[in-house]
Every structure is written in structure tokens, then in C-alpha cells.
Amino acid sequence: MTVIDVRSILVVGGRRFVSAPVSAKFGMVVIAAYVLAALLAPHLTPYGEAEIVGTQFEPWSSKFWLGTDNLGRDMLTRLAFGARNTIGIALLTTCLAFSIGAFAGLAAATFAGWLDQILARLVDVLMSIPQLIFALLLLSIFGTSVSALVVVIALLDSTRVFRLSRAVAINVAVLDYVEAARLRGEGATWIMTREILPNIAPTLVAEFGLRFCFVFLLISALSFLGLGIQPPTADWGSMVRDSATLISYGDITPLLPAGAIALLAVAVNLVVDWLLHSASGLHDA
Amino acid sequence: MAPIAKIIGQRVALGMLTLWIVSVIIFAGVQFLPGDIATEMLGQSATAETIAAFRKSLGLDLPVHLRYAYWLADVLRGDLGTALSNGRDIGELIRPRLFNTLFLALTAAIMAVPSALLGGLLSALYRNTFFDRLINVFTLSSISLPEFFIAYILIMVLSAKAGIFPSLADVDSTAGLAGRLNAVALPALTLTLAVLAHMTRMTRTSIINLLANQYIETARLKGLPEWRVLVRHALPNAWAPIVTVVVLNLAYLITGVVIVEVVFVYPGLGQLIVDSVQKRDIPVVQACSLIFAATYVLLNLTADVLSIVTNPRLMHPK
User: Fold this and answer.
1) Do A133 and B159 touch (CB under 8 A)?
2) What residues in A contact B289, CB-CB < 8 Å?
3) CB 3.0-4.6 Å disulfide test: which of A65, A276, B111, B137 passes with B192?
4) Phi, psi at residue A68, to the nearest 5°?
5) pLDDT in tens, B68-83
6) Closest residue of A to B275, CA-based?
7) Do B145 and A249 touch (CB under 8 A)?
8) Chain A interface mutation, best of B37, B128, B152, highest count of A Cβ atoms under 10 Å
């Protein structure tokens, strides 16, 4: 067993952080701030998540830093809890999408033949309907609940993960060491998880960031439409919707949750951009 | 038969097959409902006899494949059924809204396509300069912005502060062209910004790829100025990838239109589908998603066919 040396990981990680370009540093700092806000939400905020503490749409004051929403709940508190709910649900969905998509992709590449053909054609068809429209159709059938949302979006998004992991895994599946493993009689599970998976992992990690971004924006859009995360759970998409009327009076409050969504998406993209860039070995001339 | 006609024929046949499978999926979705449309429509209090009679009148007592055949035949004749929530004919409900949505999407496309081509061309011409970086940063960040964020910023600046355009885009059938254009100005601008980034980046990439070709090098070595190389030598060959990029991004408008219509309360197809999902009016959702999905499939098919027709290399398959 190898002993994981925490100190050397920190040193290497620190060095990589220092050598990263400004945009990636900015992205990482933003992501860290979001994660902290999400983890510490109950300790950072003066009120409860769904607690009604004032009258409707109170302006910014020392009591309510960012005012109150359409039901008189503290905006700042809900923003912090929104980090927890919105990011948490998007992360859960992305993980589910990856488990389904990567497993199916690996299986298709390992077994090839008819299984590969069936899965690939199925994914082609699923991808020929725009994701948002497909999600709307499925949510009208299964109803709008968080569990339906997570499963529907994960299934729809796993098609993209499948395509990528299948494409990468097919190239690995024909290499000599995989052939050697087959010949020594290893089972399919071993070949998939021990021979192929470690070799496609770096690609999947970068893709995870992109998929998270996409899922996060899709869930926020659905919540904004009133079909995603349901009240009283604090969530950025529905917060924009609830406070939208303020915008016509020139109040920027509705832009805050919308901006929170945009900033996180930009930050993740910046970091992924850097990861892909440094993984591909390209360097600025 | 010429090989190119054969390729296009195959591609169109594949597109039609996809369209057919999409219709099967949209029809089959409803079969997952707990209970069926009859129980949904009549509610909890209906007796078993009423439900059975109603099922018979809707044709729900037939086997699945027959129901699908009837449904498809109706759809092909343009009969989309009746809405659950108000009993109106879905075709009538959809027609004016479809027109509104097409008008909005067309306005956005007219604004987006030329500016994306120009932006992509200029940043390819002045690549790795400050101008190129500026466009790069702008497009990279606007790709990750949700449509409603762009929309509310535009409302904030152009409607609430400057008061140039209305923040609500409610149009009725009596409005003239000028009135309509004024109403859709902000939604169209939002959509334009949403698709502009992808289109610009893809145009830039395809032109830069093209500029790496040897005949471009030859033209440069002949001493031609850069703009002439670009316009006379690169551009004629760049149309194929650019047309594909444009059509693919028009397909992307479909997703954008749903959000934008809800933000601006614009009476289009996107708002109808969202309202119907909330009311769980499944026949209307089915009809709308069929239209959206068919448009998407057909646009992708068009992009494929155009890229086959305009690409000389694809005319001689190995």
C-alpha cells in the first residue's frame, strides 16, 4: 500500500496554483468562495432559510443588507442558502449523469458489437431532441419535484458523457495492455475499471467541469421557469423569478442571484479551460 | 446516380427516420403517466363508468400501436387534438404563437448572423492581437451567462434606466410591423447575444483552419495583401463550414427562445410550453415539443446537406 503524503500533495498543488494564469486563479478563488458559502450558510446568515422576517420587497438596509424578497424573506440569507441548494443539486445530478454515462460508455467500448450499436443509436436519437424541450416534456409527465428533476437531467446529460467516454475508451480498448489483460482471462469489470478507466480519467475530469456548468445552467433555467427546484427551498433560479418585478423600477436586486449563477459558470469555465490547456501540453508562445 | 445525390438521399432518409423516432418518443412519453389522460381530465371524483365512457370517446381503449397510428395520422393532417385545460383546438392555439416565435427568431437571426460573421472574420484577420483577445474574452464569458441574466441586464439598462424599449413584449395580431419590431427589440437582442458567442468563435476557428492551407501560403507568397487573401482565396472555401455553423446555431435559438419569451412575457410557443408544463396539459406539451424537436432535426439535417453540397472533398468519397 502506498501511503498518501498529504504534505507533498499540498506542495505540488500549491506550486500548480502559483503557476496558473490569472484567469484560472480567479476562477479557483471564486469557486472556493462559493463552496465556503455553501458549507457555512447556516453560520454566516442572521436568519433562517425560509423565515419571514420583514414585509415584502423591503429596500436594502442595515437590518436586511440586500433587502427582502416577495414574501419578506431576507435576500442575503437566501442567497447563501441558494449556494448550498443550487450547487448541491447540480453536483448530485452531474455525478449521477457521469455514473450512468461513463459506465455505459465503458461498457460499449469494452464489449463493442451489438451492445455498442444499440447504445450509440439510442444516444443519437435522445440527442436529436433539444435538451430543454426534452426536459420540459418529461417534467410535464413526471411532475416537478427535485427527485424527478435530478433523474431527468442526469439521464439527458449522460448522453453527452456517454459519447465522450465511449470515444476515448474505444481508443484505449484496442491497446496492447488491454489485449494482454483479456488474454490472461480478466473479467469485463476488471478491464473496464482497472485497465481502461484510469487511462481515460483525465479527460473525464475536465469534462466533469464542463458538464457541471451545463447542468447547473439548465437546472437554474428550469427553476427560473418555475419547473425546477420548488419553494420554499432557496434557489437562485427561482429567486430571480420571484424578485423579477423589481427590475422595472431600476432595482438591481434580481440581478444578484442571476449574477451569482453567471459568475460561478464563468469561474468553472476558466478553470476547465486552464486544465484542458495544461493537459493538452499546449503552451503559450 | 451521382454519388453526391446518394449521400444526400441517405442523409435525408436518416433525418426522416430520426423525425419518426422522435414522434414515437413524444407519443410514448404519455404512456408513462400514472393513470391516463381520462383520469387526469375528469379528476378524482369521476365514477368508473364515466371514465370508461370518456376513454372510449378519446379512443383510449384501443391498443397502443393503433393509438399511435391514429395520433400520427392526425398530426400529419395538422390536427393536434384539443387542450386539456380549456378544451380549445391545439392547432388554433398554436398558430398565432408559432408565427410570433418565428418572427422573434428571425429578427434575432437577422441581427446575429452578419455580426457574428463580421466579428469572426475580423478576429481571424487580426488574430492574437488586442482586438482578437477582446472578442475572445467577450465570447467566452457570454457563453456561460444564462439567457435570463442577459435579458434582465438589458431590461435594466435599456428599459428601466434609458427607457428606449418596453420591458414587456406583449403584441397582439393588430400590431403593425413597426409596433412588433419595437416590442421584440429587447427579446431579439437577448437572443442575439446568446447565440453570437458560439457563432463568432466557430467562424473564427473555421477561417483560421482554412488559412493554414497551402494555397493560402501560395497566395501570400505571391505578395497579395492579407485582406485580399482572406476575401478572394479563403472566403469562397469557407462558406461550407460557415453555413453549417450558422444553421447549427439557429437550432440553438430554440432553447433560448423558451427562456426569453418567459422573461419578456412574449406570447409565443416557448411561453405556451412552459405554461402547459405547469398546468400539466400534456397534449399541448406534446404538440409544442413535436414542433420544437422537428425544427431542430430539420435544421441539423439542413446543415448536414449544405455541408455536403458545398464541400468539394465530400463529393469524392474514398
Assistant:
1) no
2) 129, 133-134, 136-137
3) B111
4) -120, 165
5) 888 888 888 877 777 7
6) A225
7) no
8) B152
The one-letter code for the residue type at B40 is E
- Residue A134 domain-assigned? yes
The CATH number of B96-315 is which of 1.10.10.10, 3.40.47.10, 1.10.3660.10, 1.10.3720.10? 1.10.3720.10
Q: Is residue A29 part of a domain?
A: no
| Residue A113, all three cell numbers | 458489437
DSSP code at position A249: G
Retrieve residue A45's grid coordinates. Answer: 446568515
Output the tens digit of pLDDT for each of chain B's 318 residues. 567 788 888 888 988 888 898 888 888 877 766 556 666 666 667 777 777 777 777 667 777 788 888 888 888 887 777 777 777 888 888 988 999 999 999 999 999 989 988 888 888 888 888 888 888 878 877 777 888 898 888 888 887 777 777 777 777 666 677 778 888 888 999 999 888 888 888 888 888 888 888 888 898 899 988 888 877 887 777 777 778 778 878 877 888 899 999 999 889 999 999 998 888 888 888 899 999 999 988 888 888 888 777 765 655 555
Distance CA A13, CA B108 (A): 45
Q: How far apart are CA A27 and CA A270, in angstroms?
A: 6
How far the first Cα of chain B sits from its last, in Å, is 17
Q: Is A111 a domain residue?
A: yes
Tell me what ipTM this predicted complex has: 0.82
Number of folded domains in chain A? 1
Q: Which of A225, A235, A221 is nearest to A50 (CA)?
A: A235
Q: Which residues contact A180 (CB under 8 A, 6 or more apart)?
A: none
B235, three cell numbers: 472566403
Residues 6+ apart with CB under 8 A from B67: B59, B60
Which of A31, A129, A220, A245 to mutate: most B Cβ within 10 Å?
A: A129
Residues of chain B in contact with residue A144, where contact means CB-CB under 8 angstroms, are: 277-278
Distance CA B252, CA A266 (A): 20
B140 CB near a chain A CB, below 8 Å? yes
